[in-house]
């Protein structure tokens, strides 16, 4: 474990001398610290919209003379904050479900990634509201044995992020293909590239941590919960897959979901057990 500094004591006898007491953090302690930080984060994330809602409610109650137009705009802001809380709770439930289910083998079903990708691209275009150009190259008939809802969560978070973090006029490219990784093993890759601002290298390893954001104002402004990439990572991992992130500041980012694929010719159940 890492040594943790418990206390730094200046000795009263010698101004220059400092006694540092350290302790190893055990795995259990680290887990506990992670949990405490998580609860603190969730509390903070929920408190912020609640404070806004309560503030406007108070104003509406105390000032019946406010013009109708202003009352309406307060109501809209409150409903936006309510939606934020609802999204956060939905993402928290998804994440906790993903973290508690480890073995999905008995619940896997054939999922057509081509159809899933088409659906997610369609939804991303609605979200973009014609602010971006979309290029999509989806190979037909790509299947994995998995859980439809979780794969949807992974794909949609990657693509919706591209829409949310790419300025208007930008281009979002979506590719889906399959490649051989061994004579009898294939993998499917769902890749989203954007022409957004990109992400500095030091942030990349942390992006899948819960509530990690490069720019929290921007994330919240665009409706982000801070949990999207954590959800994507877990959803891919339960399929034996992984998330790969490449980014260049100033030119854009590429997120790739890599999934081991079943060999259809060998039957749906037996051949895609991840290593
Ligand atoms: P959020 O709800 O904040 O988007 P995510 O877990 O989905 O949470 O993403 C974590 C952070 O990663 C975001 O806050 C943002 O800083 C960064 N990020 C994710 N996708 C992109 C992207 N396509 N371009 C630039 N930054 C991104």
From TrEMBL:
Cell compartments where the protein resides: Cell inner membrane
Enzyme Commission identifier(s): 2.7.13.3
Question: Is Phosphoprotein found in the keyword set?
Answer: yes
Function, in words: Member of the two-component regulatory system PhoR/PhoB involved in the phosphate regulon genes expression. PhoR may function as a membrane-associated protein kinase that phosphorylates PhoB in response to environmental signals.
At the top level, the lineage of the source is Bacteria
Reaction(s) this enzyme catalyzes, per UniProt: ATP + protein L-histidine = ADP + protein N-phospho-L-histidine
GO BP terms, alphabetized:
cellular response to phosphate starvation; phosphate ion transport; regulation of DNA-templated transcription
Q: What class of enzyme is it?
A: transferase
Q: Does the keyword Kinase apply?
A: yes
Among the entry's GO cellular component annotations, what is one? plasma membrane
The name this protein carries in UniProt is Phosphate regulon sensor protein PhoR
| Membrane topology (UniProt) | Multi-pass membrane protein
Q: Kindly state which keywords UniProt assigns to this record, in alphabetical order.
A: ATP-binding, Cell membrane, Kinase, Membrane, Nucleotide-binding, Phosphate transport, Phosphoprotein, Transferase, Transmembrane, Transmembrane helix, Transport, Two-component regulatory system
Positions the record marks as coiled coil are: none
Q: Which residues form the Histidine kinase domain?
A: 41-263
State the Gene Ontology terms under molecular function.
ATP binding; phosphoprotein phosphatase activity; phosphorelay sensor kinase activity
